[in-house]
Amino acid sequence: MEYEETDYPREDPLKNARYLIVDIFQMKLVKLLLLIALAINVILFVVQTYLFLEKFDKYYFVLYAPLYFGTFFIIIATTAVLSVSHLTPDGLKSLKLWKTDKINRNIAQRIQMESKLITNYLIASSILALISGLLHMFPTKTYKEIFFAYPIFERFVPTWQNELSWIYRTSFVLTSLTMPASCNQLVYATSHVRHQIYVLLHLAEELNVESENERIDVLVDDRQFQKNVKENLIFIFRRHNNIYTVSSDVKDGIRIFIVLFAVAGGLLGISVLLFVFMFQQSLHSDFLHIGSLGMAGVATFVAVIAAGQEFENVVNRNSLLPLHLLQVY
User: Fold this and answer.
1) Residues linked to residue 98 through DSSP beta bridges, in sequence order
2) R_g (Cα) of the chain, nearest Å
3) Fewest C-beta in 10 Å: which of 94, 130, 159, 271?
């Protein structure tokens, strides 16, 4: 069977989006800034936890809960980017991606169209998140009622509260790219795997082309034909196993973060609903901030669900390969 390997990452069809969701976080300067932002958020999270425990008040807790659990989500997202974001490009390199533009015209066009849509989505969602981060750098009149960091600075370090407040606001720019990064990397990785499965399925279906105009009872006794089918099936199954192994290795590497993201996301969602229910009158001045953040979050959530479902659909079809080929083997 003929195939040609892609020079990844140079020939990556999603390379424009990859820069914003993968490559940028591999830079040493960005990693240093992420470590500083992580330290700031961890300290604020610990201090606010202490304040909650010092004197628990329902009103006080619901007021700051969205940003409290949001900070927890930021800590998880930043830790994930620093520790496992390299797994996606490393996994794709070890997979040795096949070129998708020389297999079949219809498949090539489909992959090309999907690649454009995925690239546009990933860039748009990153830009939307970045806009939200930039908007949060400029506080509204009620920012002290939502962001518990500012009262903490005012209470514990009043002399440096202005400087620390600006450092905290500046971190929003990088944080805005970090929060959806892991989800976008999932979309990026599953898209590449899905495209490789398209190619694999096409190669498997090509096994039947040679037998379309021949009688099956003749092919059964044709040793050369049977030898070719056997070799091609072994080749396909090895590729299938390679895709499965690499995907499993990456999944195992991010397993703990999948659980943490689910827990943090659930807590954040519940706290936001409680906050909106109790303080909906005070949200008018922050409508632009909350709206941009909500749009970025919803866009990322929907894309991850859609990408995961599409990947499952292709994988389920891929699992039926042996049955599809049984009649000629």
Assistant:
1) 5
2) 25
3) 159
